[in-house]
Every structure is written in C-alpha cells, then in structure tokens.
C-alpha cells in the first residue's frame, strides 16, 4: 500500500490520477498492471481486454484511492482534507475523528460516516480514544469497559463522552461496527454492556442538522437496536439486543433493516409491527424480493394504504410496485398475499 505524505495535496493526487489514465490510454504496461492490481473491474483482464473497457478518469481515481488503501476516491479526498485540518488545528483532532466515526444523526452536522477514514486516522493516532470508556465503546475496546465498570458500575446506564452517547448507542452506531478487525470486538462490547446491566433500549434524539449534539430532536429517537439492525445491519448484534429485551417497535429498526433480511426476520419474530412503518413500500424499492416476502409472511398487508411522503399519491402497494418497475417476483408475491387488482392512484407521473 502506498504511503500518503504528511501534508497531502488533493491537486497533486488529481494530477497522479490523470497521469495514470494517460498511461493507460497509451497502453503503458505499468499503468495497465496498476489497474489490474487495484481496480476490481480490471482484475483478470489481459491488456487487450483492459484497453477495451475504455476506462475513464473516475476509474483512475478509484484505482489510485485503492493503492492508498481507501475503498473510494471520495474517502481518499475526505482523508486528505481531514489530514490537512489536523495539521492546521491539531486541537480539533478528536472532533474530526468523531465526524468520520459517526454519521450526522449522531455527530451532528451534515456528514456521512467514513469508516475507512476513521480507521486510518486511528492508526495514525492510536491514543485518540484515551481512557474515555464511551470512545472505547466506539472502537471495541472491551478491556477498557471492564476497567471503567470496576471503577464505577453505574456508568453503563449513563450517556457520556464527547458526543454524550449511551454506551450501547456508542457501540452500535459506530461506523466500525461492520468493519473487519472491529466487528467481533464490538460484539464483545455489546455482550459485556448488557451483562453489566446496560438497558437494551438506550437511545438518543436525532442530532442531524438543524438539530445538534447540544440540541437534539427528542421527538425522533434512534435506538441501539436501530444501529445494529438498520445501520450495521448485523444479525448477531440485532439478536443480542432483542434477546436482552430491546423493543423492536422503535420506529426505525424495521424500515432500515430491509437491506439485511436476516435482521428483518429477527425483528419480525420479536414482534415488530409492520402496519404504519412504511416497510412494505420501502421493500418495493429493493432489487431483491426477500424483504417483501418476509413482511408478507409475517402479516404485512398487501393492500396497506399509503402513508405520507412520496408514496402518498401512488395508491396501494401493487400500483407502487408497477410504478417502480419491480420484478415479477415482487408483483407475484403481492398477488399471492392477496393484493387487490383493482388499483387506485396514479400510474403515470
């Protein structure tokens, strides 16, 4: 893996990507080899096959990012900006890291989480979590949790740390929850916290702008279970919380779990209510029919009236499925479950 200089320049990286693309277009063997080694779409292609792909600048940027150890050019850019910010304002290192570690609904602001960037910053600054048990939750440092509990057993019931998070929320909403090298560590932290008495329904108010960490929107609660099933989409974390008594009807988990059908199944078996969740309509946005089939098998109404938002004017689920050009499997599943063929609503925009 290539090393990034201490003060990287995004303009220089863009120039490197353009030079790589120029070499590729000239048939340079070194450039072709770099694409084969780092770009998934180019692997196992001979020179002629690789040239026939007519790769473009975004492919060269993706290749360069992967050479530096990042999954995307966007992650590389964010890391460069974070590195520059750390050099300019070293006192804000922890704040910058937390913005990569948690999405804006937890950390405030506008950002999405960037686990690859958070990991690289942690590798460069291993002392970032310090002795704060709430930051230890975020990185899966179970021994630190044990030490904190030995000092103060009641801490597992309280929110704390720089983002004022309850411990289980700090674990399950961490962007590292499904990252290799961290996943099992975070599982151990959840098990430890539950065994130490942490309530499984710990939650926070939404901090997404215009709300903030200091002034969250308490009308919209994001639970630890939502982090496990809807963000990490991790069946084992989901099962741990449900087995400990977490409420599957938290207003978020079922809807956001649908891209991980095993999490959806666990929630439904634990009593998650489908009516009013808009889950049926969300399942019709997904390419695979498995989530829809699970909802229907657990009593989902194939004729559920539309709620608010974009589905309101499109009528029943079957019409929405046609509008969304869903697969035959989606449509057949609705019909088999009793969807009415007398459609109301609008078929064309």
Count of helices?
20
**Over all CA atoms, what is the radius of gyration?**
23 Å
Tally of DSSP β-strands: 2
* Helicity level: 40-55%
Name of the CATH architecture of the largest domain: Alpha Horseshoe
Question: What would the principal axes of the Cα set say about the shape?
Answer: flat
Strand order of the largest sheet: 1-2
Summarize the structure.
This protein is mainly alpha-helical and 349 residues long.
Task: Give a structural overview.
The protein is mainly alpha-helical and 349 residues long. It has 3 domains: 10-88, no CATH class; 90-247, Alpha Horseshoe (Serine Threonine Protein Phosphatase 5, Tetratricopeptide repeat); 274-349, Ankyrin repeat-containing domain (Serine Threonine Protein Phosphatase 5, Tetratricopeptide repeat, Alpha Horseshoe). It is 51% helix and 3% strand. The chain is built from 20 helices and 2 strands. The chain has helices spanning 10-25, 29-38, 47-52, 57-67, 73-88, 93-101, 104-107, 115-124, 133-139, 142-151, 167-172, 183-195, 224-231, 235-243, 253-257, 261-269, 279-283, 290-297, 317-323, 328-336; strands at 203-206, 217-223. α6 packs antiparallel against α8 (115-124).
């Amino acid at each position: 893996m290539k090393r990034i200089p201490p003060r990287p320049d995004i303009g220089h990286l863009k120039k490197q990507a353009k030079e790589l693309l120029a070499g590729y277009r000239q048939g340079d063997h070194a450039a072709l080899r770099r694409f084969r080694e780092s770009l998934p779409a180019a692997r196992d292609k001979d020179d002629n096959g690789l040239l026939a792909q007519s790769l473009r600048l975004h492919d060269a940027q993706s290749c360069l990012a992967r050479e530096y150890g990042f999954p995307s050019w966007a992650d590389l850019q964010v890391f460069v900006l974070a590195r520059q910010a750390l050099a300019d304002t070293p006192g804000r290192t922890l704040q910058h890291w937390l913005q990569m570690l948690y999405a804006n609904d937890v950390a405030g602001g506008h950002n999405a989480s960037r686990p690859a960037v958070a990991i690289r910053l942690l590798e460069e600054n291993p002392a970032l979590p310090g002795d704060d048990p709430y930051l230890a939750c975020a990185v899966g440092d179970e021994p630190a949790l044990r030490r904190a509990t030995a000092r103060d057993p009641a801490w597992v019931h309280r929110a704390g740390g720089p983002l004022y998070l309850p411990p289980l929320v700090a674990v399950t909403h961490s962007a590292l929850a499904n990252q290799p090298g961290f996943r099992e560590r975070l599982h151990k932290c959840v098990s430890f916290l539950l065994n130490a008495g942490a309530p499984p329904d710990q939650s926070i108010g939404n901090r997404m702008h215009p709300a903030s960490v200091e002034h969250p929107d308490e009308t919209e609660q994001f639970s630890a279970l939502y982090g496990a099933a809807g963000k990490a989409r991790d069946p084992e974390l989901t099962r741990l919380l449900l087995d400990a008594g977490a409420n599957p009807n938290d207003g978020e988990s079922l809807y956001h779990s649908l891209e991980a059908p095993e999490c959806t199944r666990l929630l439904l078996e634990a009593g998650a209510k489908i009516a009013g969740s808009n889950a049926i309509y969300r399942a019709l946005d997904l390419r695979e029919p498995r989530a829809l089939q699970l909802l229907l098998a657990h009593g989902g109404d194939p004729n559920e009236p539309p709620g608010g938002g974009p589905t309101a004017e499109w009528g029943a689920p079957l019409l929405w499925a046609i509008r969304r050009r869903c697969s035959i499997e989606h449509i057949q599943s609705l019909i088999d479950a009793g969807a009415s063929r007398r459609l109301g609503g609008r078929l064309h925009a």
